[in-house]
Amino acid sequence: MKNISATLATVWRIAMPYFRSEDKWAGRGLLAAVIAIELALVAIDVLVNQWQNRFYSALQAYDLDTFVREIWIFVGLASAFVALAVYQLYLNQWLQIRWRQWLTRHYLGEWLDDATHYRMQLKGDAADNPDQRITDDVKTFVEQTLSIGIGLLSSIVTLFSFVIILWGLSNAAPLRIPGLDFAISGYLVWGALFYAVLGTALTHWIGMPLVNLNFEQQRYEADFRFNLVRVRENSEQIALLKGESAERERLLDRFGYVINNWYGIMSRTKRLTAFTASYQQAAVIFPYVLVAPAYFAKKIQLGDMMQTGSAFSSVQRALSFFVTTYRQLAEWRAVVARLDGFEMSVSSAANIAAHEPTIGVTPSTGSDAIALEQLLVKLPNGKPLVAANGFAIQHPERVLVTGPSGSGKSTLFRAIAGIWPFGTGKIAIPGKSSLMMLPQRPYFPIGPLGDAVIYPAERGTIAPDKIKEALRAVGMPRLAEQLDDEAHWNRTLSLGEQQRLGVARALLHAPDYLFLDEATASLDEPSEALLYRLMEEKLPSTTIVSIGHRSTLDAFHTRNVRLVPDGEIHVLGVGAPVRAAPSEAR
Ligand SMILES: Nc1ncnc2c1ncn2[C@@H]1O[C@H](COP(=O)(O)OP(=O)(O)OP(=O)(O)O)[C@@H](O)[C@H]1O
């Protein structure tokens, strides 16, 4: 019970924001229409039930006129039913897509906002495969919530409408048990109630493990898909290393989990279906068995009997809502749990500073230097990695950061970029200044080359002529003529070419601070020198901070800073100038 109320509270928390959002009037209007039609459908059911009594009574009485009239009444009722059912489905689907659209935008916003997606990955917490949660889980949540919610409402209204009918019918011929001198009034209602409660309890008992099995199934399917995507993304490496058979083993291993869990679902579903199918079949004859004594004692007509059968089955169907939707409920609960986990993981990554001390990256005024104060960068597991205190990067100097592999140079850059929360201390960044990080492997979105180069700027914000000029300047004149060509650039260009495009991106954005993390390491030394000279010439007022292992890079920097070991960590030393700063040189 506690579990059910917790699930319902979670559903409320996930579902409500849409109905309070900017799209609330459309959402509420569509929901109201869908509910109104559902109520109208129940009303038609009640009318059809009463019609059955008249129709079968007319049959029993060989009354042709009534028979023909009732046929026409049925045609009217059936036509109204069809029209309402069609529009209910249509409006329901319309509501689904609007709701899903809003929820997807909302989750995308939260996930992508302020590097939350990266922090979630760093924290490695419970929300596996966010892609699946934003696609399949959101879709299933919207579909199932509407279907279950409307189904439940329909069951409640049906129950009340038909209980009244059933009560009246059973009181017309109360059940008399031989030997007892009192009649059980409303016995059909009690019969239906007993039947449904017993069915619900047994269904829950048999089907309970399905909730967890469904949760796991979705996780294993998503894991398998994610691993396939990784193979596709790294197919060149795999082909070069001839890793296909290792991949096949690994993928089949993952798929093994999907299969094993599926067998669990199959066996559970088999038992559940055996029970629910028997239950539903028995429900067909159960009411006739109950009213048979009254009928054969000629206390009721065939019409009453048929109406009773149909009313009983409506009541029993309404009461057995949980029995018939159990599988759907199990899937729905799994999806609710997954979306809940996703929301919690997003908010814990977004509010990481609220739970633990983090590195404070703050805008500074009155200084145009980046200053590191009492900084201690840590690993996600809390182990200290790099320390820096009283260290400043002046504007516009050129700093080369060196140090042993794994000493934490890239992580220090991540901390300065504000995406690495683990650690303590302060990083002051001059307010309103722009920072750009160029990694060794720049990211290019799939699409037109022009858009990929200027990323993350949007199309149209930088003139094509400027992009072409930058591409020529970095030694890629051929690509300058292909700005509109679409490709997966990270796959089709060599790493050296990608690094040239990275530098073109930096030239086009002209940030105040440019951090190059081995961003030219795949080029030969003359090409690297050419790109550094180009940056010196085109970005005279940009502070450049590079990580690099080549001594030839010294020539393009004014200061060399080393990460030196100090016990278990590395400390950022205040390096000596290697040559004059650009402003002094001019
Ligand atoms: N997300 C992460 N989770 C756990 N450990 C990490 C993570 N990112 C980096 N590390 C660890 O932090 C250490 C420093 O990594 P970093 O990439 O900053 O080193 P680096 O000095 O740039 O190395 P290199 O010169 O080889 O590029 C490494 O031991 C690495 O394994």
From TrEMBL:
Residues 370-585 form the ABC transporter domain. Gene3D superfamilies: ABC transporter type 1, transmembrane domain (1.20.1560.10), P-loop containing nucleotide triphosphate hydrolases (3.40.50.300). It is found in: Cell membrane. InterPro entries: AAA+_ATPase, ABC1_TM_dom, ABC1_TM_sf, ABC_transporter-like_ATP-bd, ABC_transporter-like_CS, ABC_transporter_sub-D, P-loop_NTPase. It is a multi-pass membrane protein. Pfam families: ABC_membrane_2 (PF06472), ABC_tran (PF00005). Coiled coil: none annotated. The chain crosses the membrane at residues 30-51, 71-91, 146-167, 187-211, 272-296. GO terms for molecular function: ATP binding. Involved in beta-(1-->2)glucan export. Transmembrane domains (TMD) form a pore in the inner membrane and the ATP-binding domain (NBD) is responsible for energy generation. Belongs to the ABC transporter superfamily. This is ATP-binding protein. The lineage of its organism: Bacteria, Pseudomonadati, Pseudomonadota, Alphaproteobacteria, Hyphomicrobiales.
